[in-house]
Amino acid sequence: MSFMIVFAMIVLRFFFIAFGASSHIIRRDAVIMSVLIPKGLPAVVAGSLLYESGFPHAGVVQDIIYMSVVLSILLSSVLLFIVNRENAFSVISRVFWRFRCEK
């Protein structure tokens, strides 16, 4: 469940940045923005509050939230490493064609 949530977050972030961000952003910055996803500290706090309040199945919800945050950190780190490789950047940056190139 956590993997599906993180995968959806990355895919949605990729499309939102590619098609929704200002075209005045430099292409490299847009690519990096697309792989840096928010980590979910408010979700962790909300999951902890659910657990402490005795909400039914709160432990399962809390586990899913914690695992989603950990997976998003790991996947974001790996994607950032991949994007910084020149070969991968040239392939990925084709999606971000509407952003300006660096000078």
Q: Which key terms come to mind for this protein?
A:
72% helix, 5 helices, mainly alpha, elongated, 103 residues
Report the major sheet.
none
- Domain module count: 1
The number of distinct β-strands equals 0
Indicate the radius of gyration in whole angstroms: 17 Å
Uncertain regions: pLDDT < 50 for 5+ in a row?
none
- Helix content bin: over 70%
- Dominant shape: elongated
Strand-and-helix sequence, N→C?
Answer: HHHHH
Q: Given the structure, what is the number of helices?
A: 5
Helix-strand layout with pairing:
Elements: H1 2-20, H2 27-35, H3 41-53, H4 58-83, H5 86-92
Helix pairs in contact: 1-2, 1-4, 3-4
Q: In short, what is this structure?
A:
It is built from five helices and no strands. By secondary structure, the chain is an all-alpha fold.
Describe, in plain words, how this protein is organized in 3D:
By secondary structure, the protein is mainly alpha-helical. It has one domain. Helix content is 72%, strand content 0%. The chain has helices spanning 2-20, 27-35, 41-53, 58-83, 86-92. α1 crosses α4 and α3 packs antiparallel against α4. It is elongated and about 50 Å long. 17% of the residues are buried. The mean pLDDT is 85.
